[in-house]
Amino acid sequence: MGDIIAALALLFPVFIVAMAVRWVRMIRINSEKQIQQNKEIISLLKENKERGSQ
Fold first, then answer.
1. Any idea of the CA torsion for 10, 13, 19, 23, to the nearest 10 degrees?
2. Which pLDDT value is given to residue 54?
3. Can you tell me the distance from the alpha carbon of 16 to that of 40, in angstroms, rounded to the nearest whole number?
4. pLDDT above 70 as % of the chain
5. What CA–CA distances, in Å, run from 54 to 43, 45, 48, 50?
6. CA-to-CA distance for 41 and 29, rounded, in angstroms?
7. Cβ atoms within 10 A of the Cβ of 52, count?
8. Helix, strand or coil for residue 28?
């Protein structure tokens, strides 16, 4: 029984680090998507402004 607890105690920090790395990776991917969407929105707003001034 003590071996199981020791094994879990060793694996728990590894699991936490893996989850943290996954979480950071997901945030980075979503940030890149958000930046691309913002660029598209800005270009559409500029187009709309140009059409409105004509």
1. -160
2. 65
3. 36
4. 98
5. 17, 15, 10, 7
6. 19
7. 7
8. helix
Can you tell me the distance from the alpha carbon of 53 to that of 24, in angstroms, rounded to the nearest whole number? Answer: 43
Which pLDDT score, from 0 to 100, does residue 2 have? Answer: 81
Cα separation, 44 vs 54, in Å, equals 16
Residue 35 backbone phi and psi in degrees, to 5: -60, -45
State the residue for tokens 């699991």: 15
CA distance 51 to 15: 54
Torsion of CA 15, 16, 18, 22, to 10 degrees: 130
- C-alpha 48/C-alpha 42 separation (Å) is 10
The two tokens of residue 6 are 């020791």
pLDDT value for 1: 82
